[in-house]
Amino acid sequence: MIKLLFPTPINISTLKEPTHLIYDEVGFLLNKGYTNKVISGVDGDRIDITNEFFEKENLTYIPTLLNNIQKNILSFCKDICIKPQYITESWININPTNSYNKRHCHPGSVISGTYYIKYPIDADSPICFYRSREFSDYGWTYAADRDVDELKSYYSHHPCENELIMFPSYLDHDVASNHSKDSRVSLAFNTSP
Predict the structure, then answer these.
(1) CATH number of the domain within which 187 lies
(2) Inter-residue contact 26 to 47 (CB < 8 Å)
């Protein structure tokens, strides 16, 4: 009997959000100067989503998106048999040409995720998830006799607009350089019980 231990659940789903209207609200926030000095990735911008937005600004689509993401998180939790998790922080990443996000994880969180508001067709900037270093150090990557995801040391996914990706916060990941002349825009989040 072969038993796969310690699976890493990743949920990739497509939502039905009005991305162009969400993008308009992101532009509104950029014009109001809400960008944070904390750089999200290399050569990109970040807007931290706070309660101030909902108190001061008349936003419709970003709050609705967050509510819909929360519903998907609760469904994901149920599917993978963990206690309900709730968004504790969220932010918007704006990655112009050649901007990328370095390899990282999200300590202090249980589930993290990204929703793609704008993903140019020519961006060619996949999100890559990495297995622990020990997997490749002990030769498992090179021992595979065929190309299957379960024996790779990383998994690469080319997202599209309106796609939501959720994953365990401990999972190292990065996002390759945006090769498009248009910005890649996403909403990222962390959760806790």
Answers:
(1) 2.60.120.620
(2) yes
Q: How far is residue 60 from each of residues 23, 54, 125, measured CA to CA in Å?
A: 12, 9, 29
Instruction: Quote the domain boundaries for residue 103.
Output: 11-124+158-192
Instruction: State pLDDT tens for residues 1-11.
Output: 988 788 899 99
Pairing of β 184-192 and β 11-14: unpaired
DSSP secondary structure letters along 34-99: ---SS-SSBS-EEEEE-HHHHHHS--SHHHHHHHHHHHHHHHHHHHTT----EEEEEEEEEE-TT-
> Are 174 and 103 a contacting pair, CB within 8 Å?
yes
Tokens coding 145:
């006799």
Contact 139, 151 (CB under 8 A): no
Q: What is the pLDDT of residues 123-178, one digit of tens each?
A: 999 999 998 777 767 777 777 777 777 778 889 999 999 999 999 999 999 999 99
Total-model pTM: 0.93
